[in-house]
Amino acid sequence: MGALELRESVLEYINTADERLLKVVKAVIESYQEEEIVAFSVEGKPITRSEYKSQLAETKLEIEKGDYISQDDLEKESENW
């Protein structure tokens, strides 16, 4: 069964599903999307959507704490490399 046939079959189930089945399907889809690869690290390691969100949250906290370097400071520092 190809993707088109599967899609049509699943749509038939969804169109007649009760609330319980719809909640299960929604949870499966959300879980699948969280594990979708959305980026790659500089080392080439795949990063999932959930890992990406976690890294963004950590970075936001670092910025709020002032734990970063400005562009000017980075340029000055790089002159000594």
Automatic annotation (TrEMBL):
This is Addiction module component. It comes from Flavobacterium fluviale.
